[in-house]
Design goal:
This is Bifunctional 4-hydroxy-2-oxoglutarate aldolase/2-dehydro-3-deoxy-phosphogluconate aldolase. Belongs to the KHG/KDPG aldolase family. InterPro entries: Aldlse_KDPG_KHG (IPR000887), Aldolase_TIM (IPR013785), KDPG/KHG_AS_2 (IPR031338). Pathway: Carbohydrate acid metabolism. There is one protein chain. The chain is an alpha/beta fold and about 210 residues long. The protein contains ten helices and eight strands. An eight-stranded parallel beta sheet has the order 7-6-5-4-3-2-1-8, with helices on both faces. The longest helix has 15 residues. The mean pLDDT is about 95.
C-alpha cells in the first residue's frame, strides 16, 4: 500500500514528540497495538532516531514509521538510515527536497497556494496543512477550491471534533499529536492513550 492509499484508508497520523525516549518507544508500540499504523516520531523529541530504529526493529518492514520535523538534507538522510519510511516536514526546504530525491514517501508542510504548487511540483505524496488551526476547516475548504484533487492532511490543534470538521471539508486524513498522545511519550498514562486511540479510530472510521 502506498502512502496516499494508507492515508485515505486509515485517515489518521499519530504524532509523537516525547521528552523520554523509552516512553516514546512504548507509545509507538501502544499505538500500533491499538490499530493506528501511521505513526510519526518528531525529530524534535528526545533521541527520536533511536526511537525510530527500535520501533522499526520491533514492528518490521510493513509498518509506517515517519520522521517528523525534517528540516535539512542531513535530517532526511539520518531518518532514512534509522528506518523511517515516511518523511514529514513543517514546510518546504532542503529536508523535503532530499526526501523526494531519495524516493521516500513525503508529507510536505504547506500553508499557502504558492506552497501547495511548489510542493506538488516536487512530487510529494501528500500535503500537510500546517498549522491548520490558523484557518481551520473553512480555510481548508477554500484552499481545496483551486486544488480539488490534491490530498490534504491538516495538522496542528486537531482534536476529535476538529477532525470531523476537517473530513467534512475534504481532508483525506488528519495528523494528531497531544489530543491523542497526551503525556504518554513523556512517561505518562498509556491506558489513557489506548482509550483516546479507540475514540479517534471511531471518528476516523465514520
Amino acid at each position: 500500500m502506498d502512502l496516499s492509499t494508507a492515508l485515505r484508508t486509515e485517515r489518521l497520523v499519530a504524532i509523537i514528540r516525547g521528552k523520554d525516549a523509552e516512553a516514546s518507544f512504548r507509545t509507538v508500540m501502544a499505538l500500533a497495538e491499538a490499530g493506528l499504523p501511521l505513526i510519526e516520531i518528531s525529530l524534535s523529541g528526545h533521541d527520536a532516531l533511536t526511537v525510530i530504529r527500535r520501533a522499526r526493529a520491533e514492528l518490521g518492514d510493513a509498518a509506517w514509521l515517519g520522521a517528523g520535523t525534517v528540516l535539512t538534507a542531513s535530517d532526511a538522510r539520518r531518518a532514512a538510515e534509522a528506518g523511517a519510511n515516511l518523511i514529514v516536514t513543517p514546510g518546504l526546504g532542503a529536508g523535503l527536497e532530499e526526501s523526494v530525491r531519495q524516493g521516500l514517501p513525503t508529507l510536505a508542510g504547506v500553508m499557502t497556494p504558492s506552497e501547495v504548487i511548489a510542493a506538488d511540483a516536487l512530487g510529494v505524496s501528500a500535503l500537510k496543512l500546517f498549522p491548520a488551526s490558523v484557518g481551520g476547516p473553512a480555510y481548508l475548504r477554500a484552499l481545496r477550491a483551486p486544488f480539488p484533487e490534491l490530498p490534504f492532511v491538516p495538522v496542528g490543534g486537531v482534536d476529535a471534533a476538529a477532525a470531523q470538521a476537517y473530513f467534512a471539508a475534504g481532508a483525506v486524513a488528519v495528523g494528531v499529536g497531544s489530543p491523542l498522545v497526551g503525556d504518554a511519550a513523556d512517561g505518562g498514562d498509556l491506558d489513557g492513550l489506548r482509550k483516546r486511540a479507540a475514540e479517534f479510530r471511531a471518528v476516523c472510521a465514520r
